[in-house]
Amino acid sequence: MMYSKPTNMPKDPIGFSQQALKIRQILQEGNNDSLLISHHDADGISALAVMSDYLDSINQNYEYQIVKGLDSTVIEEINSLGHSLIIFLDLGNDPILTKLAHRTSRDVIIIDHHSPDPIISEKFLQINPHLFGFNGSYEASGATTTYFVTEYQPTKALVGCIGDLQYRRTGRLESLNREVLDNSSVIERKDLTFFGRNRPLFTAVAYSSDPYIPGLTGDIEACKLFLENLGLGPKNSEDKWITLEELGTEEKKRLVGGLAKHAMIQGVASFEFSRVIDWVYLSTDTIQFYGIRDLREIATALNACGRLQKYDVAFSFLRRTASSSNLMSILHDYRVRLAKSIKILSNLELEEIGEFYFINARDQIDERIVGVVLGMGLGSRIIRADRPALILATSLNDTLKLSARTTQQLLNNKKFSLVKILRKITANLEAEAGGHDIAAGAHIPINELPIFLEKLRKTKLL
């Protein structure tokens, strides 16, 4: 059977649940020697942790790999191993999977949430919210889809969901994701969205990246001075800095008011700044994540590990086989890199190509974080947000990494999909594209860049 996603497919929650149950029963049958292959971001690693915990609970054998993406090398390695069952987590939209269909006789299960490739081999058993009328950009992530298969570890699944920014459309979790929330030990409340709830307040403000606040994000000393001017610093040399968790209602109002004034002066759009206060997701289990309660903070740390290729640190943290110290150290390094890269971005030329903005960051911004940097640039208005933006970075093996981002506001107004646009442009190129409506990416051979840019110039959003 070949799948394609019909236009305006009605939601089919019963079919989705039945497919999840079908996969769960296969996992429970026993005698499976599974290979789990997950994506390297917070969503993929969380999905892997959920599935690993579940397979442990039913005494099933498995091995795992965490990968940046699928390529011929990964496929050949899979074929060289002897596992009877291969499970792809958060990786199901990669066209190279069709090549695997012709090269393996083993059972394959795909658990994913990305917009699926129009043709999926009949050999693959797949669960994907898109195939049941749900949107994988905001109704279910890879990790929460994995939860529906396993009915296990909802809080860990929500970490992946938060890391995938599934809340961005309305500011809070919805649809299938909310079902997972209802079954978890996580509370949802309106609060300041800064990270580090139990760290000094200047650290929480300095670590802000969503939204990025020019003049404060990444600058500890500037944050200290800013807070002292608001009367939120230590009363004397012997006092400690107040933490975000310790702020009272009036102090929060003072902080938000000061930040709003600063953001307006710096040109941050009110739409972006409004995320300073938003729905936050806090675990009530103080043991599970070593006392870190804010799921956004955990998810950001996992994404940092993924982008800096410290996969096992992230996975070990979720599995509680390692403490949080290494994770937080990597997160600090990641934030330093982001702060430096944002400064570089602000000095790069913004070119208009058709209905898009284009930035050439080759050899200047690390390909591993270039998409995040672009998103921060749009949020802070370093890059104008009146059209989608694409950024180019140097990758490996004579290829270029292309990241595309837009804002939810523009997406709501114009109803386009970045992943569909990139797939259409790269359809006849030796390129691989994937992602979501709001954020997508592709790897393009260097020699095909002129062709890509010419196609981009002719592409219409509507």
Would you give an account of this structure?
The protein is an alpha/beta fold. The chain has three domains: 173 residues, inorganic pyrophosphatase (n-terminal core), CATH 3.90.1640; 151 residues, no CATH class; 113 residues, Diaminopimelate Epimerase, Chain A, domain 1 (Roll). The protein has 18 helices and 13 strands. The strands form three sheets. A six-stranded mixed β-sheet has the order 8-9-10-11-13-12. It has a five-stranded parallel β-sheet with strand order 2-1-3-4-5. It has a two-stranded antiparallel sheet with strand order 6-7. Strand 8 and strand 9 form a beta hairpin. Helix 6 packs across helix 12. The longest helix has 21 residues. The N terminus is likely disordered.
The structural domain count equals: 3
List segments where confidence is low: pLDDT < 50 over at least 5 consecutive residues. Answer: 1-7
Distance between the termini: 32 Å
Mean pLDDT: 87
Widest β-sheet, arrangement of strands: 8-9-10-11-13-12
What key phrases describe this protein's structure?
disordered N terminus, inorganic pyrophosphatase (n-terminal core), 3 domains, alpha/beta, Diaminopimelate Epimerase, Chain A, domain 1, 462 residues
Helices and strands in order:
Blueprint (H helix, E strand, L loop, with lengths): L12 H16 L4 E7 L2 H16 L3 E7 L4 H9 L4 E5 L7 H5 L5 E5 L12 E4 L14 H9 L3 H10 L11 H8 L3 E7 L8 H6 L13 H10 L19 H18 L3 H4 L3 E7 L11 H13 L3 H8 L6 H21 L5 E3 L2 E5 L9 H11 L8 E6 L4 E7 L2 H7 L3 H8 L6 E4 L3 E7 L3 H10 L4
Parallel strand pairs: 1-2, 1-3, 3-4, 4-5, 9-10
Antiparallel strand pairs: 6-7, 8-9, 10-11, 11-13, 12-13
